[in-house]
Amino acid sequence: QGDLANIDNSRKVYEGGTVAMKRANIVGQKQADEAKFTTWVNANPTRKAKYGTLLADIERVSADFYKTGMRDRLVRTIPNVGNSGTFKEVIDAIASVSMGRALSDQKRAEINQVIAAREPMLETEIMKFFFSKISDYKFAPVEKLFDGLSGKARRDAEEKFIASVIGNPDFDSADEIIGLYSMSANDLKSKYPKLVEYAVATAQEIMAIGQKTQKFNAEINNLRLLYMRGISEMKGITPYPDANFTQRFTYGNVKGYSPREAVQYTPFTTLKGVIDKDSGVFPFIVPQKLKDLQASKDFGRFGVGDTVPVNFLSTNDIIGGNSGSPVLNAYGEQVGLVFDGNYEGLGNDIFFNPNYGRTISVDIRYVLFVTEKYAGAGWILNEMKFAPKRK
User: Which residues contact 85 (CB under 8 A, 6 or more apart)?
Assistant: First the structure.
């Protein structure tokens, strides 16, 4: 269930970000900025000398790198798919031995952990998906494996190759995979010729993609910096610095939003609402004790009206990694903990829309209520200092 939730969460992040950017016409806005920038540059000889070829240079460098972007992503993903399975560890082992790399203690620990948690059926289905996708790009090492096959014959061959790794008794335990590192490159090639050919060719291509990516980053980073300087000069502004991986503050207000016509989300959810969603099926399973506390209205000092606040929305601008951050009110008192963002606010690593972007936080009153009334750990609260209730 955890893996499925993670996969579904990633799907929603990419899907929601795309929907949000289309809705806000971000591409159109950027194109308008570039057109305005071009006019501004051409109006002054000094600016033209400094920025005249900038947009063309960005286009040239980007077009060259991204023309094989999807193919490169697939090449890099397939050997590492799922990050938890037999295929990755076997291919890593064969490629490492063939290229003269020894087994490290860290890799040994990884193999033991990965194989203990593997899901062969899930991994097989994921591998089938990725092999079917890369067939569109005619990646030579993969094409050589299947020798120009197509249609059902190709799918059958792909499944057979996948089974030669995931369903192979030779790779059925962590010890057996670790044992591959003790074999010579020639022995591996003799015993697993197709695997060796695929593993080595793919590893070499991944290295080449890495070098290409490094070169692209070196070029594009300088061009992007120059573009930002030009845009800032044109607009007469000083942009705030990139504060990633540093402590930062973001301010906002508790506020609901309307995701579409005739739909309005209020800023607070409550224990009553949690119980309304109870279906008895994961993840909507409400413990009986919480139902009993709501029924008896045994909320202690944390109730509001006939229930307890659970979560609230606010206009704070957050990014991935901010979960767990404290939310403070105007008096510096903790009122919540950040744990998520709303679907319509996705894409906020590129832009923030104040009409739709919302941070979702758990109300501190619910945290304290659960601690005292549900968990029976009220003694923890005795060690805390509480601010007076405010209107």
Answer: 114, 118, 119, 120, 123, 166
pLDDT at 82: 55
Distance CA 241, CA 248 (A): 11
Residues 123-134 as b/e (b if ≥16 CB within 10 A, e otherwise) read: bbebbeebbeeb
Q: Which long-range contacts (CB under 8 A, 24 or more apart) does 380-385 make?
A: none
Ranges assigned E (strand) in 229-331: 257-260, 263-265, 268-270, 309-314, 326-328
Task: For residue 309, give the amino acid letter.
Answer: P
Closest CA to 162 of 114, 116, 106, 120: 120
Return the half-sphere exposure (C-beta side, CA atoms, 13 A cut-off) of residue 369. 25
Q: What is the pLDDT of residue 321?
A: 83
DSSP label of 180: G
For residue range 68-94, what is the model confidence (pLDDT) as tens digits? Answer: 999 999 999 888 765 558 899 999 999
Give the model's pLDDT for residue 84.
Answer: 57
CA atoms within 13 A on the CB side of 295: 6
Q: Enter the tokens of residue 308.
A: 């307890």
- Angle among Cα 294, 299, 301 to the nearest 5 degrees reads 165
* Mean pLDDT, the chain, whole residue set: 92
pTM, whole model, 2 decimals? Answer: 0.77
- Tell me the C-alpha distance between 108 and 96, whole Å: 13
- Who contacts 50 (Cβ-Cβ below 8 Å, separation ≥6)? 230
Mean pLDDT of 229-254: 87
Residue 310's SS3 state is strand
- pLDDT tens by residue, 145-156: 998 789 999 999
What tokens were used for 121? Answer: 């059926």
Rounded Cα distance, 208 and 213, in Å? 9
The answer to whether 142 and 205 are in contact (CB under 8 A) is no
CA distances from 170 to 178, 191, 304, 349 (A): 11, 11, 62, 45
Query: CA nearest 174: which of 96, 127, 99, 117?
Result: 117
What lies within 8 Å, CB to CB, of 26 at 6+ separation is: 347, 350, 351
Question: Are 142 and 131 contacting, i.e. CB atoms less than 8 angstroms apart?
Answer: yes
